[in-house]
Write a structure and sequence with these properties.
This protein is α/β, with parallel strands linked by helices. It has one domain (about 5-270): Purple Acid Phosphatase, chain A, domain 2. About 30% of the residues lie in helices and about 15% in strands. It is built from 8 helices and 12 strands. The protein has helices spanning about 15-20, 45-55, 65-75, 90, 95-105, 130-145, 150-155, 170-180; strands spanning about 5, 30-35, 60, 110, 115-120, 185, 195, 210, 225, 240, 250-255, 265-270. Strands 3-2-1-11-12 form a 5-stranded mixed sheet, with helices on one face. Strand 4 and strand 5 form a beta hairpin. Helix 6 (about 130-145) crosses helix 8 (about 170-180). It is globular, with a radius of gyration of 17 Å. The two termini are about 35 Å apart. The relative contact order is 0.17.
Length: about 280
């Protein structure tokens, strides 16, 4: 059995099928880990969502920020500053409710102790070890799967609070957790988030660093797979595996084999949008 982690697809369905053919994926034998952002901005979000859901136990997917935005849009929640989504085919689909219900039940974090890998969409603040990250993910997952879904989605958007504390509670706590798992790239040495910068390391404001470069972060020593950062290139940092290679923007779609010595397979992509947003 081969296990591959797949980078951000964002509706690039044809490229996904080509990548799976390249790695000779067999759904009866192999397993796929999807790092989130299955949908939005690419041309075939509906087909992508249907396909991944149809893989059943052959696939594990964590939620990304665009997946959460789809959940919000499905409940009539669309912030004024987000006007470029491409979610209408999903929202108008006859199987819309089935797809949305499946999506809301996906995790924010996946950990496989046997393989020794943890997967999130974006990152982990420096205070979170595995146990705390799992607990925080569970808090949001409980809300997403319960009666509090719509009230949470209406309060999900926003950049504050910016720093972790066990004293955080209510919507502030849940919003911070979601921002870490699905949006973070840079933070300061105390874990204060900087959520506006999307460029490569070196483009951020002074005093901020890529989250995985914070000294003595609690998740150091773990193998962390993540996406969300299309301007981040492969790194020579032990245990840090970014796999969003910018398929949507004309980069690549990446599969990372993790049941053996890590091996990247990159499929060149034609690109659907100019690389000015993430």
């Amino acid at each position: 059995m081969a296990v591959y982690a797949i980078g951000d697809i964002q509706g690039c369905y044809d490229e996904l099928l080509e990548l799976l053919a390249t790695i000779r994926f067999d759904r009866d034998r192999d397993r796929l880990w999807f790092v989130g952002d299955l949908v939005n901005r690419g041309p075939k979000s509906l087909e992508t969502l249907r396909f991944v859901r149809g893989l059943g136990p052959a696939a594990i997917t964590v939620l990304g920020n665009h997946d959460l935005h789809l959940l919000a849009a499905a409940h009539g929640i669309r912030p004024d500053n987000i006007d470029d989504d491409t979610l209408e085919p999903i929202l108008a689909a006859p199987d819309r409710e089935v797809l949305i219900d499946w999506l809301r039940r996906l995790p924010l974090l996946h950990y496989d102790g046997a393989l020794g890998y943890l997967m999130v969409h974006a990152g982990l603040p420096p205070q979170w070890d595995l146990e705390l990250a799992q607990r925080c993910a569970g808090e949001v997952e409980t809300v997403l799967r319960g009666d509090g879904l719509e009230p949470f989605l209406s309060r999900m958007y926003g950049n504050k609070p910016r720093q972790w504390s066990e004293e955080l509670d209510g919507w502030d706590r849940l919003r911070f957790i979601v921002n870490c798992f699905t949006r973070m790239r840079f933070c300061d040495l105390n874990g204060r988030l900087e959520l506006k910068s999307a460029g490569p390391p070196g483009s951020q404001p002074e005093g901020y660093y890529p989250w995985f470069e914070i000294p003595a972060r609690a998740s150091e020593g773990m193998n962390v797979i993540f996406g969300h950062w299309s301007t981040l290139r492969p790194l020579d940092i032990p245990g840090v595996y970014p796999i969003d290679s910018g398929c949507l923007w004309g980069g690549q779609l990446t599969a990372l084999r993790i049941d053996t010595q890590p091996q990247r397979i990159d499929l060149p992509c034609p690109g659907w949008l100019k690389p000015d947003k993430d």
